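Morning. Coffee machine broken again, so started the prediction first thing and wrote up yesterday's gels while waiting. Chain of 312 residues, entered below exactly as on the submission form.
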Amino acid sequence: MPKGKAAEPRTSRLKAPAGADKGAVAPMQGDLFSMDSPLRGGVHGELSLMAYPFFALTKQAWMKPLTYSTGDITIEVNPGHKGVANIYDKEVILYIASLMATKIENGEEVSQNFQFTANDFFRVTGATPSANAYTRLYEALERLQSTQIKTDIETGGEGESGFFSWVETARLQYTKTRTGERRLKAVNVRLCDWLFRAILKDRSVMQYAPSYFQLSPINRRLYEVACFLRFSGVTSIRLGDLQHQIGHQSLTRLFKPYVVEAANGTVPGFEFSIQPADGASKSAKVFDDVVVIKEVPTVAAPMKRAKTAQDN
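Came back before lunch.
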């Protein structure tokens, strides 16, 4: 199997470190001296997770494997008992990556274990704390732990043969009131080796636009892939190849309207346009249409999650 290697973005300027019951729970402040939260920097993501389709694009349980293969990169993502981790579950990974990137930038020691408050996670992602929000967080952690990933992308100079999960362990710590009500104290997560190496050793992280969490699933992926292509110096891509990299699981002609919509400014920082391939005939396949991506200035938007059709 050919070996891929995660790219090293020049945009990263991190300093070296100094060294089952899922009932809803109410929030409770944890021990501030042992917390990695609150997040005091911007939102960051690992470059390979920006570039490639590691997550399902639907909230409905995706029970089929996700596969991606091109050049020297292969990815296989297998579902757990609740399905493949989805693009909304990825918010947890982005939050943890951001905590880690901030620690490294500040010269602090880092480990694979992270402890944070759910309220800070909700603040960063623009979610409103509620019983449903705590349940969704629990379920996201469950899918992140049960989803199995296999890839030949190397991180930190090391590759892995076999499968890993995004988080090795995930626990919600809580106390109980006299009436038996659960009060969430802290979220404890151990990040997988593969991603930990990518952030710590490769410094392969890029900053996200604050409005990312307001985007629909496909627009999130359009934004991420556009960022990766910009970093790679690429300004155009075939529509079918873009669909493959986005991870859209349907016909290319059904994917095209999403890119057309993105041409109207729905993706922060980028403009999209679609052109026929050079010399293409009227019978040319839509797969070969060319998507041109142009970087544009962005205007900061308030952090509030937009409700999409998939939230209903």
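The two ends are 42 Å apart (CA to CA). Going to sketch it on the whiteboard this afternoon.
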